[in-house]
Specification:
Blueprint: E1 2-11, E2 14-24, E3 27-32, H1 39-46, E4 54-59, E5 62-63, H2 64-67, H3 69-72, E6 75-78, H4 90-100, H5 105-118, H6 134-145, E7 152-156, H7 164-178, E8 182-187, H8 190-194, E9 199-204, E10 207-212, H9 214-219, E11 225-229, E12 239-246, E13 249-255, E14 264-265, H10 270-277
Bound molecules: adenosine-5'-triphosphate.
Residues 11, 14, 16, 33, 35-41, 188 line the site of adenosine-5'-triphosphate (ATP).
Length: 283
């Protein structure tokens, strides 16, 4: 079990995270917040690339700083951008990564075959990485992160830049790999985690806003989301979520406490919740 206890992280006089407490057991956790909210900061703290200004992070009750290499040995991490040698094949690159982790060659080779199969790269195992698409490279990255069969798998915006098909494929892969481990996945793409994250963590004003299931987060906005015909002037207290196509033509999706005249109630989705929660924060 991983516990973040009252963690604050300052960069000089700027507070990126303030008094954050979280408990992670097994399953997929999605870190969902707008750019600059502190997702990468939390990930760097969890991967010991940064240390808290205040508070502590515990793995099974022991401080991860004190555990050091022992903690990093049970961690798999895919950063936003991972470095690789374009002239390598996935198999060569995975062997290199396994050697860095001191995994014996024979054990590594068996594991690499299994991982290449799992991430759907068996047929491309001996092709040069320079020829790979973004999605294929991300699958190599996740295979590297899985080499040590980690108990804790951390993925920082793993689907950024992938096309929809690769995104779905990657999501399925994460779901397959989650099993008994803790998977923490950062993103600002709602659809990436709506279906696979059991718990969604949101930050607001650099503090923890919630850690809850997608259904419970959406339930806060039950009976508050409506379709109105496009072009309807919005009254006070009505917030425009998005524009789109309804069954009877173009519509606007509106958040408001009382049903607007002519409004058709619709079930709130996680994207509605995201837009509603961060409505004061203009990009
Ligand atoms: N080394 C640093 N020095 C000063 N400020 C920093 C530093 N790293 C991050 N920040 C600031 O801390 C805040 C949180 O940054 P962080 O990268 O954690 O956000 P994020 O949610 O991961 O955003 P993104 O989705 O854009 O990566 C931002 O305002 C950022 O500018």
């Amino acid at each position: 079990m991983l516990c973040v206890e009252h963690v604050t992280k300052n960069y000089g006089s700027f507070t990126a995270l303030e008094d954050v407490s979280l408990t992670f057991t097994s399953g997929v956790y999605g870190l969902l917040a707008p750019n600059g909210a502190g997702k990468t900061t939390l990930i760097k703290l969890l991967t010991t690339l940064l240390f808290p200004t205040r508070g502590q992070i515990l793995w099974d009750g022991e401080d991860i700083q004190a555990l050091g290499a022992e903690y990093r040995g049970l961690l798999g991490y895919l950063p936003q951008q991972f470095g690789y040698y374009p002239g390598d094949t996935p198999r060569q690159f995975l062997r290199y990564a396994a050697a860095l982790q001191c995994i014996p060659r024979r054990e590594a080779d068996g594991r690499i075959d299994h991982l290449l199969e799992t991430v759907g790269l068996r047929d491309a195992a001996d092709k040069k990485l320079r020829k790979f698409s973004g999605g294929m490279l991300q699958r190599v990255g996740i295979a590297v992160a899985m080499l040590n069969d980690p108990k804790l798998l951390i993925l920082d915006e793993p689907t950024a830049g992938l096309d929809p098909r690769e995104r779905v494929r990657f999501r399925n892969l994460i779901h397959t790999l989650s099993g008994e481990r803790i998977v923490i996945l950062s993103t600002h793409i709602v659809s990436d985690i709506e279906t696979i994250a059991g718990q969604i963590i949101m930050f607001k004003d650099h503090r923890l806003y919630c850690c809850d299931s997608p259904a419970r987060i959406c339930a806060q906005f039950q009976d508050k989301v409506f379709h109105l015909p496009a072009g309807t002037p919005l009254a006070q207290g009505q917030f425009l979520l998005s524009e789109g196509q309804g069954e009877a033509g173009p519509v606007v999706r509106v958040l408001c406490d009382a049903p607007p005249s002519g409004g058709i109630p619709v079930a709130p989705g996680l994207e509605d919740a995201f837009l509603a929660i961060y409505r004061e924060e203009q990009p």
